[in-house]
Amino acid sequence: MGWGVNIRECIEADWESVCEVYQLSRFDESGESVDFSSIVPIEDDPKALRLFEHSDIIVMEIDDRVVAFAGNRNNHISWLYVHPDYRRKGIARKLLTKILEGLSGTVTLNAAVCNPVARSLYESMGLTLERICIADSHDDMRQAMLLLLENKKTSGLTVYDYFWRAIHGEDE
Questions:
Q1: Helical (H) or strand (E) element with 47
Q2: Do 138 and 45 contact (CB within 8 A), yes or no?
Q3: Is residue 172 in a domain?
Q4: Cα–Cα distances in Å, from 39 out to 55, 118, 171?
Q5: Integer Cα distance of 20 and 82 in angstroms
Q6: Which CATH number goes with the domain that contains 29?
Q7: How far is the C-alpha of 57 from the C-alpha of 20, rounded, in Å?
Q8: In a domain? residue 83
Q9: In angstroms, rounded to a whole number, what is the distance separating the alpha carbons of residues 77 and 162?
Q10: Mean per-residue pLDDT for 50-66?
């Protein structure tokens, strides 16, 4: 990349930057014409806030500016957002790789069906499409893809059960 790049744990001082990345990314990831004002900011969405607070979050800084963040709750990738100005530079792949290094067993994530760029990234990293479902995407309900890193049972739960618990904040 050639920049001063750092991946580290998210700290409280990152909150404003994380909110900005999220807001700009949510607009772009919709893949359809959406009124920017209709996107609920993370700080105003109780479900998104709860998921954020219960996830392990990392950020990527480039030249001391937070340009992306990612996170997981248990083995569910709950967050992966890159500022639009920094896309197509391998940042999402680096963050996802960093998270996956610390996980074992079945890893799940969901992505909007209308986001083929995300699906391409995830599949290039070994995740496979498990099913298309309607998922709560923080501020709305939309078609989502459930993707898996491994297709097996974890702790006696089916993959779908594990995914459901992870995104709804239910511990095993």
A1: helix 46-53
A2: yes
A3: no
A4: 21, 19, 29
A5: 10
A6: 3.40.630.30
A7: 15
A8: yes
A9: 12
A10: 95
